[in-house]
Amino acid sequence: MTPIANCSIQFRMECPKLWEKLYPTSDDSIRFCETCRKNVHLCLSMEEVYHHTTLGNCIAVSQSDASTPMRMGEVAPWEQYRRGSIQDQEKQAEEPQS
Asked: Facing residues of 38 across strands?
């Protein structure tokens, strides 16, 4: 799984559970948490993070270090982010590193 580059997601509540321990659903990108009784949506891009955050969904994102568990939880209100900064992060991720 590819991590979201330069990810600076701020969680209001970060979940200590592991993605692998959540209950699978009919959609491979959604798992159900028995503790909080919510679906957790796997986000593979900042656009998906933005989408699920605006809907108030819990999310899961992979870390840059593959051996580190995914970060999951309820994201801080999206108003804390500027829409332009998301696009800037994605552009930076696409630029070759010098």
From this structure: 33
Q: Distance between CA atoms of 85 and 76, rounded to whole angstroms?
A: 16
Residue 84: per-residue pLDDT? 44
- 45 lies in a domain? yes
Please give the structure tokens belonging to residue 15: 């979940």
CB 73 within 8 A of CB 58: yes
Centroid of chain to Cα 65: 15
Whether the CA torsion 51, 46, 36, 38 is positive or negative: it is positive
Q: Quick count: other Cβ atoms within 10 Å of Cβ 73?
A: 20
Q: Name the percent of the chain lying above pLDDT 90.
A: 30
Integer Cα distance of 36 and 91 in angstroms: 35
Number of domains in the chain: 1
SS3 state of residue 1: coil
State the pLDDT at residue 65: 67
Does residue 91 belong to any structural domain of this protein? no
**Domain interval for residue 1:** 1-75
